[in-house]
């Protein structure tokens, strides 16, 4: 369903694709792991992941963008669910967006790295992937959880995000596509550098 036209593990496409968006892809087991620069609310994957807060109250950043794009049905479900602990995930409709579902997860607020931040960030990714698997979803888009208002150092956030997804995709063959949709150049570059280090290409 998501063909990749290369044999080596990382394809470094031209710096700018025809649409002007940067892109990088790797095959992990049965799945494709892709990095693009863009706005996650426009994604056509089965679900997109929201970097929410424990009260599921909405906010700024990607959370604000998702509620604006998806409309009030998402907040109505969030209110019924009531909340989500840090490192866990819940699922709602995608409302008016192309993605059918939003998986809301809560990353840690970064303090100094000694308050379990790394494990909580990994858990946010893992629980989102488990939620997608439980619903038999085939494709999922992530933003850079905790890397905005929550202040997680970008390089470390990228490494943990990618390592957690790679580990999951190696063990679970059900999800065919995981796409990181990175909003700005510096976030894209951090993820692209981290992926290059985790999966050295030919
Ligand atoms: N598409 C993709 N990524 C985006 C978009 C978008 N439309 N908009 C922003 N980003 P943040 P956090 C990127 O702050 O750090 C909210 O108020 C952004 O550039 O959205 O986990 C919640 O309610 C950054 O790289 O999430 C919580 O209270 C990344 O998304 C709190 O912020 C995450 O930044 C969560 O903070």
Automatic annotation (TrEMBL):
> What CDD domains does this protein map onto?
Macro_OAADPr_deacetylase
- Species of origin reads Syntrophus aciditrophicus (strain SB)
Q: Mind telling me which NCBIfam families this protein's record contains?
A: PRK00431.1-6
| PANTHER family, per database record | GANGLIOSIDE INDUCED DIFFERENTIATION ASSOCIATED PROTEIN 2-RELATED, MACRO DOMAIN-CONTAINING PROTEIN
Macro domain ranges (all copies): 20-199
Any matching Pfam family: Macro
| Classification via SUPFAM superfamilies | Macro domain-like
Specify the domain of life of the species encoding this protein.
Answer: Bacteria
Xref: SMART domains: A1pp (SM00506)
Name of the protein described by the UniProt record: Appr-1-p histone processing protein
């Amino acid at each position: 369903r998501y063909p990749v036209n290369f044999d080596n593990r990382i394809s470094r496409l031209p710096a700018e694709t025809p649409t002007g968006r940067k892109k990088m892809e790797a095959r992990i087991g049965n799945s494709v792991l892709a990095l693009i620069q863009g706005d996650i609310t426009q994604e056509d994957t089965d679900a997109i992941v929201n970097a929410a807060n424990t009260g599921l109250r909405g906010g700024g950043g990607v959370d604000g963008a998702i509620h604006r794009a998806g409309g009030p049905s998402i907040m109505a479900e969030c209110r019924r669910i009531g909340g989500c602990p840090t490192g866990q995930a819940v699922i709602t409709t995608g409302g008016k967006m192309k993605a059918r579902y939003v998986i809301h997860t809560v990353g840690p607020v970064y303090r100094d790295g000694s308050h379990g931040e790394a494990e909580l960030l990994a858990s946010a990714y893992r629980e989102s992937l488990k939620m997608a698997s439980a619903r038999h979803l085939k494709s999922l888009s992530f933003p850079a959880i905790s890397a905005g208002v929550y202040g997680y150092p970008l390089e470390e956030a990228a490494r943990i995000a990618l390592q957690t997804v790679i580990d999951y995709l190696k063990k679970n063959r059900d999800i065919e596509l995981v796409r990181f949709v990175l909003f700005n150049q510096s976030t894209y570059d951090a993820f692209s550098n981290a992926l290059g280090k985790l999966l050295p290409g030919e």
